[in-house]
Specification:
Length: about 300
């Protein structure tokens, strides 16, 4: 048989091969520990925070997010571990067999209260959703350290039409750095610069955002816990006093720009889109979007031209 005759043709379908299957996950050993007097078992490799959440214990977090690598810098999640000299961060410390942990002891409450007071006395936390509840829970009184958050007071950086950087609200949680780095975007447009009291989030050589490596995916906005990074429309509405979340609606939809199928949560007020987010639990996006999905919605507000007579 000639080589041409042996070649496959569209008239003779090639039989399908076996469908690839995801190999089953390796079974993990269970680790048993005690938290607040209650026993709990979690898979090996889980954190203390995972174990506490399994028991329904609400442990406060600011720098932690399920989709990012824990950097344990805010220290608001610390717990007391028997045998440990210092309090340990629940978000990153792995659970170990036989651990005895207290999440609400007086020592833990004092540490969390001091962290919240130091943060709220140095930065503007007025747009941090979780802060007010945390301060009330731990009776934090930041006014003891002064009446004005002046440590990092600085004007907002408005150098583009998509989002605003107001670092007077930044608590250096590093979430934006992680999201811009290997955990999500791999752009590395921002990083921590300086040391001590001069530490801050910055672009390379502190250049304006349009001159940096930023691709305007907005994933840093999606993880910011304090509003230091904010949609330009939201910022303008807050400045004008028209931002009212109680009047806003949320609608889940699929991004129309490509075939990936990213899930969008559209936030609208008075019939206008004010911001777009993506749910963390989405298996497609895990909360991440590109520039088109997060910012490219203005076309829905364009009024059609009147029909010519």
């Amino acid at each position: 048989m000639s080589e041409a005759a042996a070649a496959p043709t569209p008239l003779i379908p090639v039989p399908r091969g076996p469908v690839p299957e995801i190999p089953p996950a390796r079974p993990r050993a269970m680790v048993e520990l005690t938290i607040d007097g209650r026993s709990v078992s979690v898979p090996e490799g889980s954190t203390i925070l995972d174990a506490a959440r399994k028991l329904g214990i609400d442990t406060p977090t600011l720098c932690f997010l399920e989709t990012l690598t824990p950097v344990n810098v805010c220290r608001v999640c610390v717990v007391e571990l028997d045998g440990s000299r210092a309090l340990v961060p629940a978000c990153s410390r792995k659970a170990e067999r036989g651990m005895v942990i207290r999440t609400d002891s007086e020592r833990v409450r004092l540490s969390r209260r001091m962290v919240l007071e130091f943060l709220a006395s140095s930065v503007d936390v007025s747009t941090a959703p979780a802060f007010a509840e945390y301060m009330q829970r731990y009776n934090a009184q930041p006014e003891r350290f002064g009446t004005a958050a002046a440590t990092v007071a600085q004007p907002a950086k408005i150098d583009n039409e998509l989002y605003v950087r107001d670092y007077s609200k930044c608590i250096l949680c590093y979430k934006c750095v992680e999201a811009c780095g290997v955990d999500a975007q791999n752009t590395f447009a921002i990083a921590a610069a300086g040391r001590g009291f001069t530490a801050h989030i910055s672009t390379e050589y502190d250049v304006p955002l349009p001159d940096s490596a930023c691709v305007y995916c907005g994933n840093c906005i999606g993880v910011c816990p304090t509003g230091a990074l904010m949609f330009k429309r939201e910022y303008d509405m807050r400045e004008a006093g028209t931002w009212q979340e109680s009047r806003q609606t949320r609608s889940d939809t699929v991004c129309p720009y490509c075939g990936v199928g990213c899930v969008l949560t559209v936030h609208a007020q008075d019939g206008k889109i004010v911001r777009v987010t993506s749910p963390l639990e989405s298996t497609v996006t895990h909360g991440n979007l590109c520039i088109k999905g997060r910012f490219g919605w203005q076309f829905v507000e364009i009024q059609p031209a009147p029909a010519s007579k």
